[in-house]
Here is the input.
Amino acid sequence: MPTITIFKDDFESLLKGTRTTHRTVSIEQVEEWLMLVKGELKGHNPDTGELRIELQDSNRPDLWCCEGIARQIRIKQQGKIAQYPFLTGKTKPKATIVVKPGMEQVRPYVAACAARGYQVTSQGLAQLIQTQEKLAEIFGHKRKTVSIGIYQLSKITFPVTYELVQPGEARFTPLGMETVMTLAEMLMVHPKGLEYGGILAG
Here is the structure.
């Protein structure tokens, strides 16, 4: 079952006003709330505020993050689903992804969104990366069917091209490394290349 780590102060801020008058939520209250999402508290570090939570429902990937758990608890407590206009409003895309022929045989679907207005903190970034990894590992079958990336929008030049490339031709500096490498080299030396390179063999 999915196990995630969240931060207690982040959790409290997302549940502010949810049937509690206390500024600081007790661990007992956290455990009571987690029952509403089929979750169980597996660990608590008072020094860092980290909460380790095991979720019993593997069919609810929307709960594999602090925001998803808090949203579901609010729905249970308030008896209504919050409306998010940015999910229903029809707007014309401001950026384009160009999909080249052949991708339908490898990765037949691609989607992207731009998120603005959130000041990314170290905790927030850790949560984003954790959610990305959980979705790719569990829902995406260890990235065989789904792979997710988070990028800084200001450093992207549109349109973005989604295409097949030769592993010995495309070159860039991979995350965590200091030298430019080809894709083939990354598969041989980069930790993620070694871990997931087998996907390309199929």
Remarks:
- The chain has three domains: 3-78, 90-164, 165-202.
